[in-house]
Design a protein that fits this description.
Length: about 190
């Protein structure tokens, strides 16, 4: 019997990998567990993704797209009248209002870059892309600082099991966005 044409198989494998990581963590990811979850032959997973790192790169890239779409859809970073601190706090609030397991999964994939060098460029792409979006409203160093602050706030909420505090986040973002004393007025970012 000939091969069946299955144009969606690669995507189903990525989706299955994300579900496996969500259920069992990175340690539970294997070609075999993904093949079972995707309901495809084991050879399909290794055909599309020779190594688990290749599969994790695809999974991380896909999970990064979720928050990037939220940021792009907001459009506030292109609007010079928008309150950047308030918009960032609101976006994180929307993200945390969603399914907590999904956020934990995204961070598990993101933090896997600590031990898996193949994931580092994808994690760096996410940080750079977000900093570029924020850079439309502030200088590059402040934009990178905002991304780091967002990561810190998110990690604290996830690790402690606490609730996201939008007021605290807005105030903290606003502090970072305040111009330094003595800075020229036209160099000051909008906050």
């Amino acid at each position: 019997m000939g091969r069946r044409y299955d144009p969606d198989r690669r995507q189903r494998i990525i989706d299955a990998a994300i579900r496996v990581v969500g259920q069992k963590g990175i340690g539970g990811l294997s070609h075999r567990s993904v093949a079972a979850e995707a309901d495809v032959p084991l050879g399909s997973t290794t055909y599309h993704f020779t190594t688990l790192d290749e599969l994790l790169v695809a999974a991380l890239r896909q999970s990064n797209e979720g928050f990037a779409k939220v940021v792009a859809a907001g459009g506030a970073f292109a609007d010079p009248r928008a309150d950047v601190a308030g918009e960032l706090a609101r976006l994180l609030g929307e993200w945390f209002a969603g399914e907590r397991a999904g956020i934990e999964l995204e961070y598990e994939l993101y933090l896997a870059a600590l031990r898996r060098p193949a994931l580092r460029p994808v994690a760096a792409e996410w940080c750079a892309g977000l900093a570029e979006s924020l850079g439309r409203r502030t200088d590059p160093a402040t934009a990178r600082g905002l991304v780091a602050l967002m990561d810190g706030i998110c990690l604290q909420v996830l690790i402690t099991g606490g609730e996201y505090d939008e007021v605290y986040a807005r105030e903290t973002f606003a502090r970072l966005l305040r111009p330094e004393p003595g800075a020229a007025p036209d160099a000051a970012p909008d906050a």
